[in-house]
Structure formats: C-alpha cells, structure tokens
Amino acid sequence: RGALKVGTFGAILEYGVEEKITEHSSLGATMVVGTMGVICKLKLTRASQTYLFPFQLSDEVMLQPVFYGTVAPLLAWLTVKKLLLEPLELKRKEEAKEKLRQSMREKVAAARQEAEASLSLMEERFRRG
User: What is the pTM of this model?
Assistant: First the structure.
C-alpha cells in the first residue's frame, strides 16, 4: 500500500506492507518519508489489540535511512517467513491431513464392519432357506 500526502507542512510519502500471519494476527511495516524525517513503523495486530512501534531513522530525508528502513524489515520478514512461519503452516496442514486420513480410516473400518455383518446375516439366511 502506498500514499502521498501533501499539506501546508510539505509532502509525505508513505509506503508499506501488511501480512496476515495467523487467523487472528497480522504484521505490518510502513515507511514514512517527509519533512519530519524518515520513520519506520512496525505494527502487530493480535485479535483486537494493536501494537505500533515507530522508529525515527533520520531527522532529515536522506537516501541511506530510506534504503535501510526499507531493506532491513523486508529481509527480516523474509527470514522469519522462511524459517518460522512456512514450516509451522506446513506442519499444521500435515496435521490436518493426518486427522482427515484417520477419520476416513475409521469411517471405512465402520463401513467394512457393517458390510461384513450384513454379509454374515445374508449367509445365515441363505443356509436356513
């Protein structure tokens, strides 16, 4: 997401990303570049609680703070995503698949037992008749 705001105090360029981590959590990073300097804002939302961490990187607009304020959170996010979040998501999906397989096994076993009971009942009737 991005925004350009122009007012009496000058222009402000704001850009950032927000990613849903879990069903109830999201994490966002926003860079604000303007007359007040360069600010990197990190936002964590968990259920109805929101935590906002603004970091003043520079009092004036310079290329280095803008670059590092953009690249550092991006690299940190990619690292956390690859090393923590994706394996956790994969584990959750595998557990859900295994749970589904187990319930299907139980249903098939119950259906097989019912079929065998019906078959033995039919054999018994056939022998009598």
Answer: 0.65
**DSSP string covering 72-123, please?**
HHHHHHHHHIIIIIHHHHHHHHHHHHHHHHHHHHHHHHHHHHHHHHHHHHHH
For residue 129, what are the CA distances in angstroms to 82, 103, 125?
A: 69, 39, 6
Comparing C-alpha atoms, which of 114, 86, 65 is closest to residue 22?
A: 86
**Residue 3 CB coordination number (10 Å):** 11
Q: Which residue's entry shows tokens 């056939």?
A: 126
Strand, helix or coil for residue 62: coil
How far apart CA 22 and CA 8 sit, in angstroms, is: 40
Per-residue pLDDT tens over the stretch 30-89 = 999 988 899 999 999 998 999 999 999 999 888 899 888 889 888 988 898 899 889 988
Nearest to 31 by CA among 64, 2, 60, 11: 2
